[in-house]
Design a protein that fits this description.
The complex is a heterodimer of chains A (288) and B (268).
Chain A (H helix, E strand, L loop, with lengths): L2 E12 L7 E12 L3 E6 L5 H8 L7 E6 L2 E2 L7 H7 E4 L12 H12 L3 H14 L16 H13 L5 E5 L7 H18 L2 E6 L2 H7 L2 E6 L2 E6 L1 H5 L2 H6 L6 H11 L11 H13 L5
Parallel strand pairs in A: 3-8, 3-9, 6-7, 7-8
Antiparallel strand pairs in A: 1-2, 1-4, 4-5, 9-10
Helix pairs in contact in A: 3-4, 3-5, 4-5
Chain B lengths: L15 H4 L2 H17 L3 H18 L3 H8 L3 H14 L5 E5 L2 E4 H27 L2 H11 L10 H31 L9 H7 L1 H24 L18 H22 L3
Antiparallel strand pairs in B: 1-2
The chains are: A alpha/beta (288), B mainly alpha (268).
């Protein structure tokens, strides 16, 4: 697989030359591959927000490079807007950015800035609205009449309508109820499956990350602590816990069973995998 | 960009200038302004400048910070200076050059005017640099207490002022966030003519207003939950009390102000 984004020794220092000098991102290097679903997890203040704002050129690195399809995004600073169209970023609580009279117009804001018009614009707006589950009759409503969860879907559609190659989601489910959370994640999974576009999901919730992503990047105090497939990362549960992070609930159960002397892989992170492990144990005739 | 805005920024400290009662400081500034407008000779202006210098020395506020406060009014200072310099008629002309002429009174007025504005601004800035906005509104509320008899809603005004001050940093942060979010959707705030630039502000202003109203609503509810019902019968956590240093400072202030007025009578 070809890397779509390459982050090379990225460093961002705030307040250089003042007593408040502080590095939010320090010497981070990693790759994001085309079509993958990458999860980024880290404690508050681990540099997640600063990092993702670099990926679409909202912040300029104070050191290091970001390559999009092999090209430095800051090679031509005047064309940074193109990078923002290609790497779509959905902020935390994006519903507070809505401003237009109708849902349709708000979703159309991004693609219009891109220069899309006429039928192409209409197609982008309707398709992205459908992707996040906004009904056609809701398109003519004012976005301020909608519920909180629906507003968030509209904001998400507003970024999807730009048809970015990479989609970055910063805590997309924060503040939603469990049903709304699962619903929204299902929409995002569908989008990933059908469009085969790259997604970067930033989250606090280990369970949410474990259920969705192909690969996890763990950040700790402005650096990359580990990266790898979920099974690899959760196999290092002890380290995660010392870093102040959680492991998925299923992994915690597996670890507890293992601690009681049962022969279970403590790195499982889905209910199905744990079920398989326990069933295998029973077949083996070990006492339960 | 937005973080550079300073509105009467407060530099915490423990000097006498910081410890003085906010009421004392407000009154001293008023006295200072009165004295400044009575001054009209080199002696009295010198006295005013000396007073400020002593206060600055006591407060340990850096001269740099004070001078920075002058920046926004630099244009007004220069404009006043030039206007006074060239367009004041006088008995004796020092320079005559076409329609431009500088008279002795003009030169005098220009120097004094510029000095007056600079001292005025630095004096008030010294107060805001040494007094937190909260204690400043507190002091103002107590000073204006008497106006309550005239049905002036003093407490409500002071409360509004402290809330406004409290929310300035919050709103700045919010604006930053909304700007980033719209930039991520390809909004362009830099290029285009004036009308296009004004239009580009709509995606920022609408969400900002909506969130400001939402915050106001939430704050009102939170205040009501804590049984806020206006100033009636409300007690204070920090009750302002004049100390000996306040009486001394006020006495000195009155003395200097009176001195300037007396000197003025003698034509100095």
């Amino acid at each position: 697989m070809e890397p779509i984004l390459q982050i090379k020794n990225l460093t961002h220092t705030y307040g250089i030359g003042t007593p408040f000098q502080r590095s939010a991102v320090e010497d981070m290097s990693f790759e994001v591959y085309g079509g993958e679903f990458l999860g980024i997890i880290g404690h508050t203040g681990s540099g997640k927000s600063t990092l993702i704002q670099h990926l679409n050129g909202l912040l300029k690195p104070t050191g290091g490079q970001i390559l999009l399809n092999g090209k430095d995004i800051w090679a031509e600073p005047k064309k940074i807007r193109d990078v923002r169209f290609r790497v779509g970023l959905v902020f935390q609580y994006p519903e507070y950015q809505l401003f237009e009279e109708t849902v349709y117009k708000d979703i159309a804001f991004g693609p219009t800035n891109q220069g899309k018009t006429g039928e192409e614009l209409d197609r982008c707006v309707r398709e992205s609205a459908r992707l996040v589950g906004i009904r056609d009759d809701q398109l003519d409503k004012s976005p301020f009449e909608l519920s909180g969860g629906q507003k968030r879907r509209v904001a998400l559609a507003g970024v999807l309508a730009m048809e970015p190659e990479v989609l970055i989601l910063d805590e997309p489910t924060a503040g939603l109820d469990p049903a709304g959370r699962e619903n929204l994640m299902a929409n995002i999974r569908d989008y990933h499956r059908n469009k085969n576009k790259t997604i970067i999901l930033v989250s606090h919730s280990m369970d949410e990350i474990a259920q969705n992503v192909d690969r996890i990047l763990v950040l700790k105090s402005a650096r990359v602590l580990m990266s790898g497939a979920p099974a690899e990362v959760f196999a290092r549960a002890e380290e995660l816990i010392t870093a102040g992070l959680d492991v998925p609930q299923v992994t915690r159960i597996a670890m507890a069973l293992k601690a009681r002397g049962m022969d279970i892989d403590p790195a499982v992170y889905t209910v199905e995998a744990l079920e398989q492990e326990i069933l295998a144990l029973r077949k083996g005739g070990a006492p339960c | 960009m937005l973080k550079d805005i300073t509105l009467g920024q407060y530099f915490p400290g423990t000097t006498v200038a910081h410890k003085l009662d906010p009421r004392t400081k407000i009154l001293l500034v008023v006295l200072y302004i009165v004295a400044l407008f009575c001054a009209k000779s080199l002696v009295t202006y010198g006295l005013m400048a000396l007073c400020l210098a002593v206060c600055v020395y006591i407060s340990k506020v850096s001269i740099k910070a004070l001078v920075r406060g002058l920046k926004p009014v630099l244009f007004i200072i220069i404009f006043t200076g030039i206007l006074n310099l060239f367009f004041t008629p006088g008995d004796r002309y020092l320079v005559e050059w076409g329609f431009l002429h500088i008279s002795d009174t003009g030169l005098r007025n220009a120097v004094f005017m510029v000095l007056r504005i600079m001292l005025l601004i630095m004096g008030t800035f010294l107060m805001t640099y040494t007094t937190s906005p909260i204690s400043l509104t507190d002091g103002l509320e107590r000073l204006l207490n008497g106006l309550k008899k005239l049905h002036v809603p003093v407490h409500e005004l002071a409360m509004m002022m402290s809330i406004a001050l409290r929310f300035i940093p919050t709103l700045i942060e919010e604006t930053d966030k909304i700007m980033s979010a719209q930039k991520a959707r390809g909004a362009d705030f830099e290029s285009g003519n004036l009308i296009q630039k004004a239009k580009a502000l709509i995606p920022i202003l609408v969400p900002l207003f909506i969130s400001a109203f939402r915050r106001a609503d939430e704050l009102a509810t939170a205040m009501e939950c804590r049984c806020y019902h206006g100033g009636e019968g409300r007690t204070k956590l920090h009750v302002l009390q004049y100390q000996r240093r306040d009486y001394i400072a006020l006495a000195l202030g009155v003395l200097i102000c009176a001195g300037v007025i007396v000197l003025r009578q003698f034509g100095l």
